[in-house]
Amino acid sequence: MPEIRVVPLGAGQDVGRSCILLTIGGKNIMLDCGMHMGFNDERRFPDFSYVTKEGPLTEYIDCVIISHFHLDHCGALPYMSELVGYDGPIYMTQPTKAICPILLEDYRKITVEKKGETNFFTSEQIKLCMKKVVTVNLHQVVRVDDEMEIKAYYAGHVLGAAMFQIRVGQDSVVYTGDYNMTPDRHLGAAWIDQCRPDLLITESTYATTIRDSKRCRERDFLKKVHSCVEKGGKVLIPVFALGRAQELCILLEMYWERMNLKVPIYFTLGLTEKANHYYQLFITWTSQNIKKTFTDRNMFEFKHIKPFDKSYADNPGAMVVFATPGMLHAGQSLQIFRKWAPSENNMVILPGYCVTGTIGHKILNGAKKLEFENKQMVDVKLSVQYMSFSAHADAKGIMQLISQCQPKNVMLVHGEDEKMDFLKQKVQKEFGIECYKPANGETIIIRTEHNVPVPISRTFLKREESSGLPDPKRPKLFHGVLLMTRNNGWKVVSPEEAVREAGLNEHVIRFTSSFNIDCDSSDGAKVLARVQDLLEKNLETSEMQTSDETVSINSVLIQLDSSRSELLVSWSFQDEALGSCIFNLLKQKLSGERAERAERNQRSERRDR
Amino acid sequence: MAVDDSDEWLFSSMNKYEDLYQYELIQPTRTIAFVTPGEIAVGGCLSTGFNELLFLSAPGHLRLTGDEQDLCGERDFFVIKGALTPHGVDHIETGGVGRERTLFVMNEAMADVELWSLANEDSDVIEKLDTMKTGLPEGCLIHDKLAICGSTGPQALLFDVNSLVQVGSIEWPRPITCAGFVALDGETFATVCQSSGLQIVWDARVGTGSPSLVLEQESTSKGDRFAFAVITPKEQPKIAVISDKGQLTVFDIRQSKAALECVDLGLSEPTKESNLCLQSSSHKPNQVSISGFGHCVLVLDWSTQQQLFKYDGHEEDATPLYHQWYPWKEDMIFSSSSDGSLHAWHAHF
C-alpha cells in the first residue's frame, strides 16, 4: 500500500528550527532547515541523526526545500550542508536566495564575534551552501528528477516566502512554511489552486487565536508613536533589515503625509540601501498596490524617512528611528537605546519576538536597570511597548487554505499548543478529513490510494452500460480483462476481445441448475408460457427468445424436462448474475405454486373427509 | 502617497475611539458570557450547519493595565476550549455553586438547557455534560444554586442547578414573554415583558412557600418591544426599560409607580430583525447603553439624559445582536453584530 511518511525534526508542537522530513514515493525531502533562536546549545539545530547517525546526508536526502528567509526556517542550512554534509540540490525562491545569506552572515557575526562561539559555520561555508541552491519561480513546475517535481505558490508573510507542492507519481504533499491569508501593505495574501494533495502540512502558529484586526493594531501603533513625538519624545523601533520594517515604514510614511507631521523619521544606513534594493529587484513579489503605483512612484523611496547618522541620536527634540538589529542585542539599535533609555519622555517599540538573553527580552520582562560592559548601569525609564505585527494565518485562515487546496489529510506544525483537538474536530466536521499534530521525532504515516488510468474499449463500455456511455462522475463496477501488449500499452477490453487479440482458444464455462415442478408431458407448452410470462413481468429485457422447448435470454437457457418434471436453467459464466436471478425467480414462483397447489389439495381433502 | 478607504478609517477612528479591538468570529454571536476575569464564552447563532461554542481567554490588553499592558503585546483572543453544536446558541450562563466551570447553553430551537463542562484540562474540547429538561423555550438565569427557566407563557420554573430538579415555579399575573431575568440579590429577581413592558420583581425563596410577587407594574413607555436592565442591583435597585419607540424609563423598584426618569431619545425605529438590548454599567450607575436602533451602540447618562458616546464601528448593513459592559475594565463594552464581528471598545473619548 503506498504511503507518505512525515517526521518533524523541529517545529513539531513547537515554533523554531523548522525541519520536516518527508518520504513520498520512495523520495526523501527535507522541508526547511531552521534554527531555534531560544537555545545556544545543540538544541538550536534540528536533530539530523534521525536521517543518519554519522556521515553526510547526501545519499539519504533527494532534495531540500526552504520556504523563506527567516532564520527559524533556514538558519541551520549551512550547518547541515557544510558541517554535517549534504551536496544535493536546495530549492528556494530567488528573493529567498538573495536575502538568506545576508541574515545568515549577520547571525554568524553575532554568534561568533560577539558571543565567542567556535562550533559554528563560517562565512565561507555560507557561500558554499548557497552554491547548491536552485531557484524556482512561482507556479513553475520544476523537475527534481525523473519521478519528482515541485511547484511554488505565493505565501505572503515575507518577501519571497513560498508554499511548495511536491509530487512523486500520483502522491503529492503541500508544505506551507509560514503564510498569511490576508494581504499586507507591502505583500499580498497567500494563494493556492485546488491541487488536492494527499497531505497538507500547514503552520499553526495562530491556530488557536482569534486575531485583532490589522487596522486596530496599526491604529494602536500610530497613536503611541504620535503621542510620544507630540510631547517631544524620541521613539526607537528596533527592526531587522528586511521583513516587518518595510510594512511599518510604509504605514508611518502614509500617516506622516496625511497628518503633515514634521517630526523627522530615520532608519539606519544599511537598512535603507538593502531593503530598497531587494524590494525593487523583486517588485513582482510585493502587493498589488505597490506594483500598481511603482511606475509612478517607488513606495520604498520615502519622502519622510531619511538615512540616520549616529550623531542625530543626540539631537534635541522629537524623532522616530528604525534601527537594526531587532532584539537590541547589538549594533546601532542598542547604542541608541542606551542613550534614550533614561528619559521618561522616550519610547521603544519592539515589533517582534525577542530571544531570551537579549536586551529586548529583558526590558519586555520589566527590567528597570541594565548592566552593560565595564559594569555600566543604565536606567530604563522610557516607555517600553511590545506590538506584534507578524503575519501568520489564524484558525479562519487555515480553514480557508484547506478549503482552497482540498487536501485528503492535514498536518499541523509550527505551533506551540499541544491541545488541538478542537481544531482537528473542526477540520474533520467541515471537510471530512483527518488532521494530525505530531511532536518532534514522531512519525506520521498516511496511506494513499492510487488510481491507475487505463484506456477502455468503447465497445466494451457500451456493452456494459446498455443505456449508452456511463456517467463519469458515478463509480461503476465492470468485469473485464486488462490486456497488456508490448507495443500498444494496456487497455481494458471484454473477454471476447481479449481472447481474440491474444489469439487464445476460448473456454466456455456454463452452470446448470434444476428444480422439480409439477407437470406432465402435455403441460410442457403451458409451463414454458408461464416461464415466459414470469420473465417478462420481472425482468426489464426485450431480448427473450423462445422455441417449443426452450426460453432463452442472452446465454441463459431455460428448458423443461417433462420426463423428470424438472426445469433446467443453464447460463454462461458471463451471465452469472442474470442466470442466478432467473433461476431463483423461477424456483420461487414455480416451486411455490406447486407447494400452494399441494396445500390447497390437502385442505380440500380434509374438507371432503 | 495616496490614502485609500481603509486608511481613511484609520484617521477617522483616531478622532473617535480610545481603545478599540475588532475581531471576526466564524459565526455571529448573540450572547457574550463573562466567565471569570479575563475569560469569556460566545456561541454561533446560525440556524443551519454547525455552530462554534467558544471559551476564550481575553488578550493581555483587556486584562492588564498600565505598564503591564504596554509590555504585553497580546491583542488577540486565545481559544482555550471549543465545541461544535448543531443548534444556534441563544444565550449562555455560567457558574452556579457546585457547578464551577460549567456553561449553561440555551438554544433557540430547543426547549431545554444544555450543560457543557470546561473542567477537563487534558483536552481543548468543551464536553457536553447533561441537559436540563425544562420544557420551556429560552430564557434562563443561573444564580448561585438556582436556575430560572422559561421566557414565554404563564410561568417560569425554578431548578436546582446541581440536581437539575425542578424545585418551584413562578406564576405570572398573565402570560408574558420575558426579556431575560436579572438577580437583585440571592432571593429577589426581576424581569420585564418583552411585548408589553410589564415589570415584575419577585421573591424566589425556595422552601418558604411559593415565590411571591414583590412588584408588578405596567410600563409607561409606549412601544411594541421592550428591553430592560437593572441598575445597581444590590444597593438601590432600579429598572431601566427601553421601548422600540425610543422611550427610556427608569423606576426605583422600592417606590413603584413612580418613574425617576422618562425620556424620548428620538431614535429611529428598529427593524424587525434587530435585537433590542439595554445594559447598565457596573462601574458607573448613571450610565446605560442601548443597541438595536441602527448599527450603533449608544451610551447615555440616564439621569441627565445626555448622550455620552456613540460607537459606530460595526458595518452599517449588519444587524447589531448584543452588547455588554466588560466587568473587569471600566468603561469597556463588548458588542456583536450579524456579520460575525465582535468588537471591544472604550465607551468614552
Gist?
The complex is a heterodimer of chains A (609) and B (349). Chain A is an alpha/beta fold and 609 residues long.
**Pair with the biggest interface:** A-B, 48 and 42 residues
Number of helices, where a helix is a run of at least 4 consecutive DSSP H or I residues of chain A: 16
Q: Which bin fits the share of residues in helices of chain B?
A: under 10%
Q: What's the alpha carbon Rg of chain A, rounded to whole Å? A: 38 Å
The strands making up the biggest β-sheet of chain B line up spatially as 10-11-12-13-14-15-16
Strand content of chain B: over 45%
| Major sheet description of chain B | 7 strands, antiparallel
Largest sheet: number of strands, sense, barrel closure of chain A: 7 strands, mixed
Low-confidence stretches of chain A: none
Q: Estimate the mean pLDDT confidence of chain A.
A: 86
Keywords:
heterodimer, A: 609 residues, alpha/beta, 7-stranded mixed sheet, 16 helices, B: 349 residues, mainly beta, 7-stranded antiparallel sheet, 3 helices
